[in-house]
């Protein structure tokens, strides 16, 4: 029997990674996953690690912790990132995000190149390409330098430098997804849905900002396509259907047979967001931030995935139908919680 091709994965225990690993296992890959701790906490909705997965304890900020483990792998998939919105402006918080999203990422690909890994994938984000002003550009779109959150800035920097390395011969494909949802999602989207069905969202911010959503299974299918050795040093967008927060609140209200929360202007919340940022800098997590308001400024992050559809036969599935099912599932979970609490 031929040895299975070995893939080294970062972010494998995160939301997207947990769904990708079983698919890779089914495709016949042997998996090595970088983890910060061998004691893994099971998160509801996320698939368990496939059998025979090798865990390497290490950290992106310490290349020596994983460098030797890279040897002998045929592919690297890098998904680990520090994703937070509402980051305190303190230098320590920003330094930690930069260390993971930029320095740690570039160090990882340098180490992979030294280990002669022939196929690499970096998971970027449409935030790294920036706002689109209502248009649907392709992978060649360049960021205009207006950053609405520090996460966006760090991802853009990493994306830029990896493109430079790509042009210099680094065998890396760059995947560029939009928003992603599915079982085990703990993102702002999922938290908003849960909070809505708990009856704890008194208002919504009036905004025309738009973004795209795709089910995690379809993104994973796209990532696996990029392991094809015939696909070298290319970038692919994997985006779904357009949505906005008002559209989402309307959809949630219809599913839950509830009232749509009234609108409140972002400008009326500036002072409150400023105050919450000050409190957040002391440690506590706050439900509102100046970064969150900037994201709601009417900007659009919408892109065209025609290249992936044409060259990879990729499909975003049925985002509206799948999102409706996802919202209904979370609504049912909250309803069950309420029944148990009685």
TrEMBL record:
GO molecular function list: aldehyde dehydrogenase (NAD+) activity
Segments forming domain NAD-dependent epimerase/dehydratase: 7-228
InterPro entries: Epimerase_deHydtase, NAD(P)-bd_dom_sf, NAD(P)-dependent_oxidoreduct
Gene3D superfamilies assigned: NAD(P)-binding Rossmann-like Domain
Gene Ontology cellular-component terms listed: cytoplasm
Protein name: NAD-dependent epimerase/dehydratase family protein
Species annotation: Limnobaculum eriocheiris
Lineage: Bacteria, Pseudomonadati, Pseudomonadota, Gammaproteobacteria, Enterobacterales
């Amino acid at each position: 029997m031929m040895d299975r091709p070995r893939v080294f994965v970062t972010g494998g225990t995160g939301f997207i990674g947990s769904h990708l690993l079983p698919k890779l296992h089914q495709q016949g890959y042997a998996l090595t996953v970088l983890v910060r701790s061998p004691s893994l906490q099971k998160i509801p909705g996320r698939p368990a690690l496939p059998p025979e997965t090798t865990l390497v304890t290490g950290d992106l900020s310490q290349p020596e912790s994983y460098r030797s483990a890279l040897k002998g792998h045929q592919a690297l998939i890098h998904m680990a990132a520090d994703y937070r919105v509402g980051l305190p402006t303190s230098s320590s918080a920003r330094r930690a995000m930069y260390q993971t999203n930029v320095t740690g990422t570039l160090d990882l690909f340098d180490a992979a190149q030294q280990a002669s890994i022939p196929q690499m994938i970096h998971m970027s984000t449409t935030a790294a390409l920036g706002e689109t002003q209502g248009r649907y550009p392709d992978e060649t779109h360049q960021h205009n330098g207006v950053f609405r959150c520090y996460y966006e800035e760090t991802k853009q920097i990493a994306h830029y430098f990896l493109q430079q390395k790509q042009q210099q011969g680094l065998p890396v494909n760059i995947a560029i997804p939009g928003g992603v949802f599915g079982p085990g999602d703990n993102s702002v989207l999922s938290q908003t849905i849960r909070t809505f069905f708990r009856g704890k969202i008194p208002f919504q911010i009036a905004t025309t900002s738009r973004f795209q959503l795709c089910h995690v299974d379809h993104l994973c299918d796209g990532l696996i396509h990029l392991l094809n050795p015939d696909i070298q040093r290319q970038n692919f967008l994997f985006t779904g259907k357009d949505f906005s927060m008002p559209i989402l609140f309307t959809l949630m209200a219809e599913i839950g047979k509830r009232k749509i929360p009234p609108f409140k202007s972002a400008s009326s919340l500036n002072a409150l967001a400023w105050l919450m940022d000050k409190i957040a800098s002391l440690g506590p997590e706050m439900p509102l931030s100046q970064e969150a308001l900037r994201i709601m400024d009417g900007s659009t992050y919408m892109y065209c995935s025609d290249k992936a559809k044409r060259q990879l036969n990729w499909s975003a599935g049925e985002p509206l139908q799948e999102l409706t099912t996802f919202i209904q599932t979370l609504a049912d979970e909250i309803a069950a919680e309420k029944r148990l609490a009685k």
